[in-house]
Amino acid sequence: MTSTALVTGASRGLGLALATELSRRGWRLVVDARDAARLAAAVATLPRPDLVTALPGDVADPAHRAALARAAGDRLDLLVANASALGPVPLPALADLPPAALEDVLRVNTVAPLALVQALLPALTRTGGTVVTVTSDAAVEAYRGWGGYGASKAALDLLTAVLAVERPDLRVLAVDPGDMATDMHAAADPDADPADLADPADVATALLHLLAGDVAGPRVRLADLTPAVRP
């Protein structure tokens, strides 16, 4: 039986890299992104676009999440909650972070992943599937300007850890991929040299290598792994 994965935020960066690698391996995919044109262009580049269902939309929208759950069907082997919102840029100090902006970031980065897991639990339960939430070192380190984003990821880490305890029938991991050469990183730190950052394609390969093994969770930093699976 063909394995099925749902990857959010799959039009670029790590989401697209994961979709590409899973497609190369013959998985059926359900993918989303907010920009419909960019999502369609991304799907066209995948090795097996015939096995892909692409649904443009915002993961913070309950109707969109319901559509994703319907597209996933009765069985889901892997959910990667990758879609994220950075918040205002340039990144503001907490004293200048509008509460409404923080609420938006929390809706996308914290509330939406949990709500999506809830919608997909029956399909994940049937396969004893895997839930991956994509986290950040900003969840555990205090960086100037990263308070809103970091808080959303810290809350996501705790939700992931509790879910892992409550649902031992599933594999539940929060994965910190490290700094990558992505549009989001460029928006947050425009002075960073992309040559110093990991290629999302390498990170995707490392993550899937990780998932093929028996790694202990619930939180994993790819940089802490052996060189064989480190991006």
Order of helices and strands: EHEHEHEHEHEHHE
Alpha-carbon Rg, integer: 17 Å
Strand content of the residues, in percent?
Answer: 5-15%
Strand order of the largest sheet: 3-2-1-4-5-6-7
Second-tier CATH architecture: 3-Layer(aba) Sandwich
How many domains in all?
1
Net shape: globular
Q: Briefly note the CATH topology name.
A: Rossmann fold
Quick one: CATH class? Alpha Beta
- The count of helical stretches stands at 7
Mean pLDDT across residues: 95
Low-confidence stretches: none
Walk me through what this model shows.
The protein is an alpha/beta fold and 231 residues long. α1 crosses α7. The longest helix is centred in the middle third of the chain and has 29 residues, at 99-127. The chain is globular. It has helices at 13-24, 36-44, 62-72, 99-127, 147-166, 183-188, 200-211, and strands at residues 4-7, 28-33, 52-56, 78-81, 130-134, 171-176, 219-221. The chain has 7 helices and 7 strands; from the N terminus they run βαβαβαβαβαβααβ. The protein starts with a strand and ends in a 10-residue tail after the last strand. It has a single domain (4-224), classed as NAD(P)-binding Rossmann-like Domain (Rossmann fold, 3-Layer(aba) Sandwich). A 7-stranded parallel sheet has the order 3-2-1-4-5-6-7, sandwiched between helices.
Task: Kindly summarize this structure in a few lines.
With 231 residues, the chain is of the alpha/beta class.
Give structural attributes.
seven-stranded parallel sheet, single chain, Rossmann fold, about 230 residues, about 45% helix, globular
